[in-house]
Amino acid sequence: MVVQPILNHTIGAFDKMQMYAVMNDARYEVGTSDAIGAHIHSCYEIYVNFSGDISFFHDSTVYGIQPYDVIVSAPGDVHHCIYHSSCRHAHACIWFVSEEVGAFLARRGIRGKISLPREDAERVPRLLRWLSNAEADPFLRAARLMEFLALLDNENSTAAKGTEDFPEVVGKMLSYIDQHLTEISGWESLSQEFFLSKSAINRLFGRHVGISVGRLIEAKRLSYAEKLLRADLSVTDACYRAGFSDCSRFIAAFKKKFGQTPLKYKQALFEKK
User: How many CB atoms are located within 10 Å of the residue 82 CB?
Assistant: First the structure.
């Protein structure tokens, strides 16, 4: 998948809320279905869609996405966009390092897909423009952020509970992966369980999940390993308990996904406490 940037604006740390935001408008040329791969973050992410022929994979659920739909991902949630065609994909992402904002989102149960009523959706572009204006008054930007979060917590907003319409067997395979994450071998296990060929499984995942079986399993295991490190397990214990059989491969995959080796990542976590 080739990304051709049209607009990419980033703002830095937002006072004590430690907010980072990117507004992106780019054309995505679909080549291989999982060239970008799954995303995992150690903080909350709020994704807002403006356009694009996409669905969104979040925590083993696939959502159909319309303009101004919002996806809220908690720390460790595996998520990514699924591109159904080469398209212009305009969207915004906001990441909150602040534990206070994360605690609010968790306390209010704000997670997964949220569809805003039309009158609220029409306010979103203006609010995001304020948030992305680095020269705006910090107090006013904080006020706009609170207004945006209030929209997500509005009783008129709709939290989606279902999964996009796709073959029942895909949902069953996703559930099977979650239930057998630490021992599953990959497409071979799915083939034996669901009596499907490798090519059939790859075709189903490519079309409906947007990522290969192997990459999805690796991402979910990395997410689980990150939680184990937070629980103060050793790197070796986190590696094997998450389902990895090779510590060197685990360390390399973890560093690629989180930007640090597991040991340095854990040390940084506990230095903050």
Answer: 21
Domain count, the chain: 2
Which domain-ending residue is among 133, 159, 185? 159
Quick one: three-class SS letters along 151-220? HHCCCCCEECCCCCCCCHHHHHHHHHHHHCCCCCCCHHHHHHHHCCCHHHHHHHHHHHCCCCHHHHHHHH
User: What tokens were used for 257?
Assistant: 């996904």
Judge if 152 and 192 occupy the same domain: no
Residue 154's φ and ψ, nearest 5 degrees, are -70, 135
The residue to which tokens 């995001």 are assigned = 128
Task: Give tens-digit pLDDT for 106-151.
Answer: 999 999 999 988 888 889 888 888 877 777 787 888 888 889 999 9
- Expressed as residue numbers, the domain containing 253 is 168-271
Mark whether 147 and 173 lie in a shared domain.
no
Q: Which helix (H) or strand (E) holds 84?
A: none
186-198 pLDDT, tens per residue? 999 999 999 999 9
Q: Name which of 187, 116, 183 is nearest 154 in CA terms.
A: 116
The string of pLDDT tens digits covering residues 161-183 is 555 667 899 999 999 999 999 99
